[in-house]
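Cross-check.
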Amino acid sequence: MSTLADDDDAPSEGVEFIHEDDGLITARDIETGIASSGETKAEALTMLAEALTLHEGGGEPVEDEAAFLRDIGLDPDEIAEARTANDELPEFLR
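Predicted model, tokenized:
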């Protein structure tokens, strides 16, 4: 990836592509810094578009959290236990 000598000349909008060492391609929205990756530029752009939509408040609300967690391969009971164990704020945040 090339860098510009003067940050004032850097674009404030658009998408940059980064070819990762693992073969994936990352698409990063320059304005927001949001990034997503895929095996091709097209896939990375599709994933970035979805991430930007979610970032801007789009998408569909999750009606049944337990069913959603099961659908993505997580155990709702384990998540609930982890939340309960981490409910107390760390001392430095109190």
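Residues 41-55 form the longest helix (15 residues). The CA atoms of residues 50 and 67 lie 21 Å apart. Passed to J.P. for a second look.
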